[in-house]
Design a protein that fits this description.
Elements: E1 10-15, H1 31-50, E2 55-59, H2 65-71, E3 77-79, H3 89-106, E4 111-115, H4 124-133, E5 139-143, E6 150-156, E7 167-169, E8 172-174, H5 176-182, E9 186-187, H6 194-197, H7 203-212, H8 216-219, E10 222-223, E11 228-229, E12 231-240, E13 244-249, E14 252-257, E15 273-279, E16 282-286
Parallel strand pairs: 1-2, 1-4, 2-3, 5-9
Antiparallel strand pairs: 4-6, 5-6, 7-8, 10-11, 12-13, 12-15, 13-14, 15-16
Length: 287
C-alpha cells in the first residue's frame, strides 16, 4: 500500500464552470448574485486548500479569475479548459480534472487532490485530515453530506480517474460516490469534517453552511439575520476618495467604505453602476 512521505509534493486541482452556468439550481436568485456567490465560494475553497497543499491548478474558462485570485493573495495557477468536444456537465468536469491531474503529475507531484469548488465552509485542518486519512490508499474519496456525490478525490502516483456526475447502471442511477467506490477508490469515513462534505447547490445548503461557518468571501454576501444572501441592489458610483465611496441606491446617496467594494479598481469610477447586496444594513458591492 502507498504511503505519504514527508518530501512528497501535494497538489490540488479544481474545475470551475463558466459563471453564467454556475449554481443553476438557484434559479430564483438574481443572476449577478448567483454568479458572485459561485465566485466567492470558490475563493473560500481555494483559500483553505492553499493553506495545506503545495500547488493548485484551477481549470476554467473564467478569463477574469487570475486577477481575482491575485487580489485575494492566492497563488493559484489558472489554465483554460482542455480542447475537445463539448459534452454533458459531468463529462466536461471529469475531462478538466483529468487534464489538471496529468499536468500536476507531469511536474512531479506525487499526490493529487481533486476538490469541488463550492465548499464555502472548508477549513484547512479538514483538508489536512482528508489527506492524512487517505494515506495507504492509491485512490480515496470523500462523499458529500448526502452521501450521493463526491467533494474530494485523492490519488497517489496513479491517475486520478475522476467519475463525477451520475450514471445509469443496470437501469438505476448512481452518484459519483458510488461510481468512485466501484472504480476502486477507498471511501473515507470521517466524522469531524462536515465542512469538507458540505457542498452548496441550494439556498438551504447555503443556510446550513453558514451555521458551520463560511469563509470571509462568502460571508460578505450573507445577511446574519436571515442566514441567506442579502437583498440585491443596483447602485451607481457618485464620488470616491481614498477611504470611501459615495453611491446612489434608488436615488438616495450612501457613503460606504472602500473595503465594501471587491472588484477591479479600474471599474470604480463615477457614473459606473455596480452590483450590490445589502447585508446587515450595509452594502457590499462588485462590478
Amino acid at each position: 500500500m502507498d504511503t505519504l512521505h514527508p518530501d512528497d509534493r501535494v497538489g490540488a486541482v479544481v474545475a470551475l464552470k463558466a459563471l453564467p452556468a454556475a449554481k443553476s439550481r438557484m434559479a430564483a436568485v438574481p443572476a449577478p448574485v448567483r454568479e458572485r456567490l459561485a465566485r466567492c465560494m470558490a475563493v473560500d475553497t481555494l483559500a483553505a486548500l492553499a493553506a495545506v497543499v503545495d500547488q493548485i491548478i484551477v481549470i476554467t474558462d473564467q478569463p477574469d479569475l487570475p486577477a481575482v485570485l491575485h487580489r485575494h493573495r492566492l497563488g493559484v495557477r489558472v489554465i483554460a479548459e482542455p480542447p475537445g468536444e463539448a459534452g454533458a456537465g459531468s463529462d466536461q468536469l471529469n475531462r478538466a480534472l483529468a487534464y489538471g491531474d496529468a499536468a500536476l503529475r507531469a511536474e512531479g507531484v506525487a499526490c493529487v487532490l481533486a476538490c469541488v469548488g463550492d465548499l464555502p465552509a472548508l477549513r484547512a485542518a479538514s483538508v489536512a485530515e482528508v489527506l492524512a486519512a487517505s494515506v495507504g490508499h492509491q485512490r480515496a474519496f470523500l462523499a458529500d453530506h448526502d452521501h450521493h456525490g463526491t467533494t474530494m478525490l485523492v490519488a497517489r502516483r496513479v491517475p486520478l480517474d475522476p467519475s463525477y456526475g451520475t450514471a445509469i447502471v443496470d437501469g438505476s442511477s448512481i452518484g459519483s460516490a458510488e461510481r468512485h467506490r466501484r472504480s476502486g477508490a477507498h471511501p473515507l469515513t470521517l466524522g469531524q469534517v462536515l465542512d469538507a462534505r458540505w457542498d452548496v447547490d441550494t439556498i438551504e445548503d447555503l443556510r446550513l453552511a453558514g451555521k458551520i461557518g463560511v469563509g470571509s468571501a462568502t460571508a460578505a454576501l450573507i445577511d446574519p439575520a436571515t442566514g441567506s444572501i442579502g437583498r440585491y441592489r443596483r447602485v451607481e458610483v457618485l464620488d470616491l476618495d481614498a477611504d470611501t465611496i459615495t453611491v446612489s441606491d434608488a436615488g438616495a446617496p450612501e457613503v460606504i467604505a472602500r473595503q465594501a467594494y471587491d472588484g477591479d479598481p479600474a471599474q470604480l469610477v463615477p457614473g459606473r453602476h455596480l452590483h450590490a447586496v445589502r447585508v446587515a444594513s450595509a452594502l457590499r458591492c462588485w462590478a
